Amino acid sequence: MDTSALLWYKTPADDWNKALPLGNGRIGAMVFSQPLEERIQLNEDSVWSGGFRERNNKSALPNLEKVRKLLFEEKINEAEKIIYDAFCGTPVNQRHYMPLGDMNVIHYKESECDFKGRSLDLNTAVCTTEYAINGVDYTREVFISQPDQVLVMHITASEKKAISVRVRIDGRDDYFDDNSPVHDNDILFYGGCGSEDGINFAAYIKVLHKGGKVYPYGSFITCEDCDEVTILLGAQTSYRCEDYKGQAVFDVERAEEKTYAQLKADHIADYKSYYDRANISLCDNSSGNSTLPTDERLALVKEGDPDNKLIEMYHNFGRYLLIAGSREKTLPTNLQGIWNKDMWPAWGCKFTININTEMNYWCAENCNLSELHMPLIDHIEKLRPNGRKTARNMYGCRGFVCHHNTDIWGDTAPQDLWIPGTQWPMGAAWLCLHIWEHYLYVQDREFLSEKYDTLKEAAEFFLDFLIEDKKGRLVTCPSVSPENTYLTASGSKGSICIGPSMDSQIIYELFTAVAEASKILETDGGFRKKVLEARDRLPAPEIGKYGQIMEWAEDYDEVEPGHRHISQLFALYPADIITMRKTPELAKAARATLERRLSHGGGHTGWSRAWIINHWARLFDGEKVYENVIALLSNSTSENMFDMHPPFQIDGNFGGTAGITEALLQSENGEIILLPALPKEWSEGSFKGLCARGGFVIDLEWKDSKITACHIHSRCGKKCRIVCDSVKVHTASSEVQTLYTDGAAEFDTETGKTYTLTF
């Protein structure tokens, strides 16, 4: 048994947060493994609540200067009243994500069984359920195939003629038209999601069998006295296909041409082509706990027992979820990935882009899954035309803008009637940094050339939107520090403000990316000059009265010092404006910021705790990394290993995976740092296939917390700079010349060559 790659349990799931997730990027399923009446809760990534609608508030632009004047006069309440009425979206809400339905598989002849176990194998992305009825052993395997675009369930028994089940699909609270059998062995389930130009969906089920017979019975397909049963489900929507019903049928009928063994083999081969690229291995310190069921192991960690292999599993599970939830040509992962059971989910299960959606992709590049980053990058192009209208109509600016949420249609208008969160014009800018991040890892000049205009257009908005503050700096206004509230020296309280620190940091990174891209592409020198001049006038990170990084342009107090957002530390992570090597005083202040947040109860949501892990890793504090990984497992992880806000949000899974990776490998400011935040509890281990900026893939082993082997593969032939005191670099045939500067070794590489380092 691979104790770091097998989630397994002795009992079926009696709650959604205990069910196990499957996905192919587009179709998602939660498997409950109920033996007699199985429930497979289904999603399709484009099942959303309605069509596009124009929501830009036409009253914003006429009131923009008035709001700015009130904020400069510190008349915060008056400014916020105008924001509430004149800037929030009309109508208030964007579209939201919805479930597809439930597929049920019912043993209709039996009422008792002996449950043996259920599992999700992260090595194969196959979910297995085992049970016995009247002395007959049954096995159900379920997976969702990306090559064949279908969900597959295969039921076998230890005796012939032992399988008698009924299959149906239902489970939506509303909005479906039909779920009746259309022939002896198939069901077409279809309906709509709402609004006159909304999305329609279809799911098609076909039941295949060996032995026995299959026939319709009410809304069921009945299998009677069969030797084996295979169920295929395809799902499509009008979002992608004009003939969505026909496409769902086609997907299933094409898959039907293969045997079950072929379907499974093709699924596993496709999945492993991503999953096997990278892994980490940590020494087993669990005193035998690693052989226990996953829920029992998690409970023991909560009681204080160590289990490095469970941490390793958490990392594997994060990579698994990205492969299952984000494939090329699919939508990006939302607040719950592609797994949502509610018709009206928390926060609409949208793309929340004041950190959550971005966090979903923090582990894409360094965990060697660059292609899976593309759904997010592709979605930015949906924002651009809508964002131009929002920029022009609300702010009188060029370029494009998006606020703190978007939806399937790329809606860019403000979302919610909530002053601490709604009026934040930075969403598109942050998303565009993912374009630059992807380039830094893959070094694809053609990709950068294709996306340069997107970066430029995001920057153009801020060249128009930024205004001078009383110190002559360029700042955003109006904006917020996401979801937080401040107190002024005079006792005024508010959220709408001038120049929150996170805004300046994001814009600094955006302007830097545009300037560097322009330089690499040898184009647009005049625009490069403009953004660099504007960048020099942005507020830099400052240290406040508590020794902390200031969250606002002024040294305000927080109304909630333990707030879940730590927006002022964007500069530490995911950016590298603040670093231990380049800005030690600011790094010290970043530590003070974290300590202050945590001392007041911070990190109480899963995603916030995950962000904190990344922060501690960037501060080279392995013990704090370990302490917060344990806190993430103990306080914010469900039995099925899903992150809990609560409720379930997938961002913490991805953020936690990224944080564990950052503890082992970092690349920032053009330097690669090996084992920068290694906890003493991980004194022995290895990783393979992790990636660094510059196009490098790294395998590394360590013992007694010291590196024993290191191999760096150069994909792009770029110069490699390793932080270390001394190192010898070899290829298979010769030693490589190194140059030492500022505590780092630098050497040239050739595309496709692997370099062995000895320390």
TrEMBL record:
InterPro entries: 6-hairpin_glycosidase_sf, 6hp_glycosidase-like_sf, AFCA-like_C, Alpha-L-fucosidase, GH95_cat, GH95_N_dom
GO molecular function: alpha-L-fucosidase activity
Positions of the Glycosyl hydrolase family 95 catalytic domain: 260-664
Ranges where the Alpha fucosidase A-like C-terminal domain occurs: 666-757
Keywords carried by this UniProt record: Hydrolase
Name listed for the protein in its UniProt record: Glycoside hydrolase family 95 protein
Source organism (scientific name): Hominimerdicola aceti
Domain Glycosyl hydrolase family 95 N-terminal: 7-241
Domain of life: Bacteria
Biological processes per GO annotation: carbohydrate metabolic process
Keyword Nucleotide-binding: no
